[in-house]
Write a structure and sequence with these properties.
The complex is a heterodimer of chains A (672) and B (184). In chain A, 56% of the residues are buried. Chain A is globular, with a radius of gyration of 23 Å. Chain A is built from 27 helices and 22 strands. In chain A, helix 11 packs parallel to helix 13, helix 12 runs parallel beside helix 14 and helix 21 packs across helix 24. Chain A is of the alpha+beta class and 672 residues long. The termini of chain A are far apart. Chain B has 184 residues and is an alpha+beta fold. Chain B has 2 domains: 147 residues, no CATH class; 31 residues, no CATH class. In chain B, a hairpin with a 2-residue loop joins strand 5 and strand 6. In chain B, helix 3 crosses helix 4. The longest helix of chain B has 14 residues. Chain B is globular, with a radius of gyration of 21 Å. Classes of the chains: A alpha+beta (672), B alpha+beta (184). At the A-B interface, strand 13, helix 7 and strand 16 of A face helix 1 and strand 2 of B. Strand 13 of chain A pairs antiparallel with strand 2 of chain B.
Chain lengths: 672, 184
Amino acid sequence: MRFAETGFNLEVDLSTGNIERVETDPRWTEQHLGGLGTSSRILWDRCPPEVEPYSEDNLLIFAAGLLVGTPAPGANRTVVTTISPQSLFTAYSMMGGFFAPELKHAGYDKVILRGRSPSLVYLWIHNDKVEIRDAAHLRGKGANEAADLIRAELHEPKAQVAAIGLAGENRVRFASIEHGRSSASRLGIGGVMGDKGLKAIAVRGTKDLNVARPAEFMELCNGALKYIGVREQKPVPGVMPILAGLGSPQEMKLIDEEWHTTNFMWGNSRTRRRDFWTKEIEEKWKGTQESVRKRLVSCYNCPMKCGATISVPGEATYMMKCFSKLTYTMAAYSDLDFGFRIAQRATEYGVDAFSAPQVMAFGLELLEHGILGPSDFEGMPADNEGRFFWLLDRIVRREGIGDALADGTYWAARKFGKAAEELAHNNIKKHEQLPLKLGMLNPVYFLMYCTGEKSNITQIEGQFPQAPFATMAEREDFVKDWVQVPDDRFKKYLLDWEFRGERANPTYPTVEMSCDIVDWQERMHHIDDALGMCAGLSSFPLKPPYHIHNYPAFISAATGIEVDEAGLTRIARRNRTLLRALNVRRGLTRDDERPPDDHWKKRFPDLEQKLLDAYYKFKGWNLRGIPTGKSLNELDLGFVAEDLRKRGFPIDDDTAPSPQPSGAAAEAKAAS
Amino acid sequence: MDATPKKKTRLVKTIRVDVDKCNGCRACEVICSSFHASPRYSSSNPERSRIRVIREPLRDIYVPVYAGEYTAAECSGRDKYTIDGKAYDECAFCRASCPSRSLFKEPDSGLPLKCDMCESDPPLDEPMCVQWCLNDALVYEEHEVEVTEEDEPQTELELGVESLVDKHGLQKLMDTIARMKKKG
């Protein structure tokens, strides 16, 4: 009997229509847990580096994490994994909501899609009954709209649906997959779904999910829930309101946006407006938010209320969470009312709310700089907000200038030449980043930005504070109940961290400490992403209920697989290294591991190189960022070593030159 | 004979449901199904839960409903409520496990489910769904009500006869019984 997991994957070939229920190898659970861990393993085995994102051979994997569907609060994440049409590396984007638990109860840990359907279809999974159904009538429908139509035609109001909108259908390289209050948005996985001709997946499940040691597991769950209740009454003092509690930043609940609006950049990540937040704005935005927000809402089995139902007069109701509240507003130098309005349309179209606003602002910069002419924007309204709506409509349909912009700032800029490439200034690994431009380099952030395989901000936030506390009294107060640290040395790092002087950024935390801190944050993210635990209750906020000390007990009691802290750390390292190897095999090089040049005003090239050297070494990689044969073997990834060696990667000899990365060839092709 | 009947009290268990506070997370469903699993907590499956959240996020509808009595036959008519402009589905608030719908039935056997307020030995302080609702959409309350001896529970037969009296009047019923007796 399998515990916590179902032990079965659903394999769907959209080219042939073949559907199989395949039993999984329980040893993979011991080696990788589940979720992102086992999905990476599948990609490694079945997606060689020649596979192009928009091809029949690319896989699109919807995975429910290992603890999803058990009573562990917050274990509800769907991890979607594929080869990104934007970065051309592995994409893993996650969503909360209700999809993954329903999939588990239908009897599957993953849905693995391959091939390409000759016509638009959707997949209907109802326990053991699985069918591919015609979706011609859903073409062009909004993501929420399609989900409603599907539930109605199936007479299954309880079915959970993940769907793409027009953007996915038209293979926009930053298209999202939408699921009610949640979306898997980053790195263009919605485009892959569209390329496969798959409009949606609907799932309904009514089967039991078992845990191995019920009483023990329930005691742990009760403990976590109780902790959440207590922690919510005790916000961390001395940090921004949105960072003080658990969950995603509570931007649906809170009105105060001084921090984002005065620290983050407006336009195409261009302008900092230090004086933006005034009493007048606060009053106005309070009115806007309270008038459109109908209710704060949760994901499956989680008491946090990170999302909200938004009803703007004249528009269909939708749901939103977190920073997408501000991305459109800030890209357009507009106000909150506009942000809520355009986000409604963008959600139905299914686009990434981080990338899409920047792409549109970038498009307008191309016009302002004369790189594109008025004829490229024929028909565009004159008013500011109208221009953004117009651009959004063009992009998701790939009409006119929208066709190039639909490829994102990196690929569009390559089409328009050097001057355009300079305007596409906010990317890492071809992927639009949060609009942040800061002063002093923070060494921990530098490493996370550079080396995170996820290539975006959620890899970065963590259980270690983002900035030092001003006074020793505050620091001492913070560390006294800081049980989440893997070791007491992390408390010392924080106690000694100052705003100015020798023990301040960029040289403190020191290179070694920075590697240590990054390693801890990464470890937590990789555990969460394998378990399907929401980062909002674990790797994202300060002092969360789940941490390295209690996770082994949760996993053991749920699955019956005995694991301790050292064992769990090893699994996390194995999963992290496997993802790195996947991307190395696709051509990832040290050159790719660069934050945008203007990310910090004060840069330290020597220190940055030292940080990368030390981090790679810490991870058991060579100076090119490639895992060494020795470290791969130590992590039972000998098969990875063998494959990389065969392909000519210098995993045993640090001095040998790198082979022509196959990713570069793919890039040349993708650009053409 | 004493003119006043003897006073007795009875404990009434109530779960106060505040739909405005429900955030739709369905933790109540998860923990209910887990608590009632055998062995306890060994599995979870919202479909076996004795509480279900009637949930339509885009219409802002969130109503936790508890499983009540099993009924062999559906009502002869149905109800549909509109509250504050929100139209609720047919029979949305009904607690019955009834042939007209799939709600409150074991998914495999089809046997009816009924909330038992998590009765257990030793007793819990509160039903599990209440304990797991950190947003206080579900709040447990107990109060005692006085019952007179006449309020002693009626037998099934009494209940049936009473309903016939209500419908036809006592005299008609007695006449009928007398007539039936004669026919013997």
